[in-house]
């Protein structure tokens, strides 16, 4: 991949999916900065994370908002965002090819529907979702990281997702912040 700072370049996803699809390229803008320690104007640091983040954030924002309900979402891998009363509160992923659970977007969103419906102080009617589908499992992980880093959603650090810090460990009776705010019915 070649180019100069600010150029848009095409890259093909790695692996069989990228080779099999031939001319299907992903466009990335080369974001770079001069190295402060080197006065040479030819040295720069390529910022691939920034290029991925900018595109994923833009595409998620352009994705249609859907009411969260059982059966929403495709049976594919991707990333998703949950909105409570219009505020982006959670970013998650579903990766059927690289995780133990083999969950799809639909399965993961269904888990959230069940969890929210079983709680007090929150109504499923107040929750919407957006999602993006990726053919490459690698992009799922990169996109989730980029979106969480950019938005810093409040539910991502509260125990809403599938893993509550400390839960199930001997000697701990940790109740997550999300469980305190939205106790079980």
- Rg, nearest Å: 19 Å
Order of helices and strands: EHEEEHEEEHEHH
The proportion of residues forming helix, as a percent range, comes to 25-40%
What kind of assembly state do the chains in view correspond to? single chain
Total count of strands: 8
As a percent range, the share of strand residues is 15-25%
Alpha-beta content class = alpha+beta
Task: Report what the structure shows.
The protein has 185 residues and is α+β, with helices and mostly antiparallel strands. The protein contains 5 helices and 8 strands, in the order E-H-E-E-E-H-E-E-E-H-E-H-H. Strands 5-8-6-7 form a 4-stranded antiparallel β-sheet, with helices on both faces. A two-stranded antiparallel sheet has the order 1-2. Strands 3-4 form a two-stranded antiparallel sheet. The longest helix has 15 residues, at 48-62. It is globular, with a radius of gyration of 19 Å. The model is unreliable at 11-25 (pLDDT under 50).
